[in-house]
Each structure stands twice: as C-alpha cells, then as structure tokens.
Amino acid sequence: MAIRRLLIAVTFSLSMLLYVDRIAISTAKAPITAEFAMSDTAFGWILSAFALGYALFQTPAGMFADRYGPRVVIAAIVSLWSLFTALTGLTWSLISLLLSRFLFGAAEAGAYPGIARAFYAWLPVGERGLAQGINFSGSRLGAAFALPAIAWLITRFGWRTSFFILGGAGLLWASAWLIWFRNTPEEHSSVSAAERKIIMNGRASASNPPNKQGPRIRFADISRSPSVWIAMGQYFASNFTFFFCLTWLFPYLQRTYNLQAVQAGFMASAPLLAGAVGNWTGGWIVDTIYRAEKWRLSRQLPGILGFLLAASGLLASLRFHDPVLAVLCLSIAVFGADMTLPPSWAFCIDIGRGNAGAVSGTMNMAGNLGSFVTSLAFPYLLALTGSTAPFFIAGAFLNLIGAWLWSRADPAKAIVPH
Fold first, then answer.
1. Per the CB 3.0–4.6 Å rule, which of 20, 173, 190, 274 could disulfide with 146?
2. Is 37 a member of any domain?
C-alpha cells in the first residue's frame, strides 16, 4: 500500500477523533445545564468559547506547523486537546467550563492546518482534492457516530467520566502518530523510490520543496492577499451553516419533538452523514476537473454548486414542521456546505504552498468566527423573535455570498512572501 494513501487514512482517523471530542459537549447539554442550573444562552457561551479559542489560534498554529513540521506539532496538539477534554470532566461552574472549552478550542486549532502542511509535502496536486474530502468526511462521520454513542456513554457512565475516557483515547492516538509519521516522504523509510518520484513530480512548487526552509510568510503577506480574503469569506459562510449541526441541532430536536437522547442523536446524525458524502463528492469533482487541466474551474465549480445547495436546503427547511422532513432539508444544506471544503483547503495549499499551514489556518480562523457567531446567533435570535426562521434566512444569505466569492477565486495567484 502506498504510504501516502495510508497517511490519508490516518488523518481521516484524526478528523474523526477531533469531532468526537468536539461534539461531546453538545450531547452532554442536558446533564450539564441541569447540574449547573444553566440557561440556553449561557450554554451558547460555552459553545462559543470553544469556537473563539479555535479561531484565534489557527494562524499561529499553522505557522508552527510550517516551521517545525506537522509530526511534532500535530502530536502536541492532540495531546493538549485530549488533556483539556479530560479536564472538562473536572469543571465545577460556568466560569470553569468557559475556560476549559476555550483552552480545548485553542489546543485543537492547529490540527487541520497541520494536516494541510502534511498534504503539501506528501501528496501531488492532482490527489489533494479527494484527500481533503476523505479527511473532512472523517469529521462528519466522527460527529455522526458520537451523537448516539456519547449519549449512550453519558447514560451509562455519566458526563464527567465520558470526558475522561475521550481524553485517554486522544493521548493514545498522539503517541502512535509520533512513532509512525515523518514530515516528508524522503524521511520515511517505508516510502519506495517510485512513490517518492510520484510525489516530488506532482508538487506545486519545485522551488520550495517541503524538506527545505523556504521564505517564511508573515501575517502582513497573508492579509494583503485578495485570495486569502476570498477563502476567509466563503469559509465563514460554510461554518455558519455546518456548526449549527454540531451545537444546537441535537438539543433543538430533543426539546422540540420530545425525543429521547439516543433518538435525537440518530436524527441529528443524518446531516453529518450527508456532509461526509458532500466532502467525497466535492473532492472527486476537484480532482476530476483538475485532471482535465482546468485548475481554476476545479476549485470554483464545487464551491459554487455547494453553496447554492446549502442556501436552498436552509430555506426549504422553513416550510416543514415534521422532524424527518426538516432534518432532510438540513441534510441537503450540509451536503452542499461540505462540498465546498475540499476546494477550500486545496485552494489554500495552492496559494500557500510551503506556507500552507499559515494560509489554511487563517481561512479556518475566519470560518470558526462563523462558528462563534452561530453558537450565539441561534439562541439569541430564537429568544428575540420566538422563531428559528431569521437564523436560517441569515445562513442562506451568507451561502449566496459564498457562491459569489468562489466566482472570483483564482488558485494561480500564490502568495509571495516579502
């Protein structure tokens, strides 16, 4: 088996773990809010604390991955977030929960930028779209699995013990990664000469190979790039739509339709499964069109189509009051939003190259500011208007803006460090 394909499988498992740990707090909402006598808006701040920490540390973590390599950086990241996952089980108040979730988010921040930097070193350009799709589908499948599984775990062992178990699993993964992975295929003894040649010939920039330190990018270089602003804007829209499924969909279904925890978990997992398929579809489109020598279109088309589907699904969900039909519409929306992920991350590697970690981290920072807004917008708009419609209309509008931004994207406009 080609080692680069094994790398995709390993990062898929990391993506699953990332979202299992992330969604656990939403699944534990009922016992946590009952124990701490917490309102929905207060719990919204718990969710947003993660998103804020995750957003703020994206670019620095990406720069660390570019400078020190994804092997050590990803191992450290997984170890830290696993520690804070476990420490969530020791919290005793709203303030301690806010702090633990902020630190958990900050620790998780470098995972995807680190993976992007690893993909730059290990994957030819023509394989990066589907690889990103497979990678991000792990997050959706992990979250979909976690909703009913953690609901059962909490019912069986309690919410505090559940967080201890999740933290231990992450520490085991970090140890295995440190033993197996190397920053470049040239350093990995199991990579054949033929595979090394395929990888090296398929990299975007022979002038900046990943095993040598190229020009280091500064934040000023990133902030001056119109391509980065396009990536940031569309990713904000994508995360605004998707993060609802990670935060408020489970408790919303449970309360609105009087569902048991495991029932609500299975229903809330449907949009996440649709997101996994959306990632595979978007990644396949990216690589198929790229191999037809239409580089720009390979990024634009899945981005535009995905956002149009996302806007349509959110608006359609307003017409139904049956939970099955509402979840079906949201599944269409998340399928579309997640179609945009493979071109988004491939685009960051295109324009960032040897600085792919910093560039993708900056995009992910903007996306998770969208997550931060979602965490608070849903409960506050519901409390203000008594309806979920304003939230879904706002999400649809943002998706239309995302589609327009993709029409302006050009992956050939790489960032040049000064």
1. 20
2. yes
Q: Is residue 307 assigned to a domain? A: yes
Choose the weakest-confidence range: 197-206, 221-230, 268-277.
197-206
CA distance 47 to 32: 12
* Residue 384 CA, distance from chain mean position: 29
Count the domains in the chain.
1
State pTM to two decimals: 0.76
Q: Compute the Cα dihedral for 61, 235, 40, 309 and give only its sign.
A: negative
pLDDT digits (tens, 9 = 90+) for 8-37: 999 999 999 998 888 888 888 889 999 998
Are 153 and 165 contacting, i.e. CB atoms less than 8 angstroms apart?
yes
The CATH code of the domain that includes 246 is 1.20.1250.20
Domain extent for 301: 3-201+217-406
Q: Is residue 414 part of a domain?
A: no
